[in-house]
Design brief:
- The chain is an alpha+beta fold and 155 residues long.
- Helix content is 21%, strand content 39%.
- It has two helices and nine strands, in the order αββββαβββββ.
- A hairpin with a 4-residue loop joins strand 7 and strand 8.
- The chain is globular, with a radius of gyration of 24 Å.
Amino acid sequence: MIRLLQRLSLIIVCIAPLIFAGESSRADSTDQPAIAVIRGRAVCLDDAGRIVDSLFYCKTSRFGFVDKDSKLYRFSEADTQAAIFTDARVRQRELQITAQLHGVNQLEIIKVQSVRDGKLYDIYYFCELCNIRAYAPGLCPCCRNELQFRESPSD
């Protein structure tokens, strides 16, 4: 009986650090940014972070996103994927953004999709010649031809 208690004590001593390590890693995981899926429209922002009424032409490279409840989210200036909003065709569409939510209202894009007739479409730019897909308008990095805007039904 004493031998059994000694073994159980040894097992508890060996397992306890693993249990507490698991608890601390779960506590640390709450520090990770949340994933948000938001529907709305992309907007241009001025230097002060206010919405600029410019559906067809943005004089800025700062963008935000307004959801259906008129809440304004801002994109991190370091988020290179926000360059997709330089295209007026993208800003004119109803969009669904999947992004990491930092703080209260700052987004870092994971995926941008358009919404048409309740269905999701992937938005991207494509070079037919080089078979290259990009997520911002501009020139093909290979042949230097203009990338073509594409929308395809989402899987």
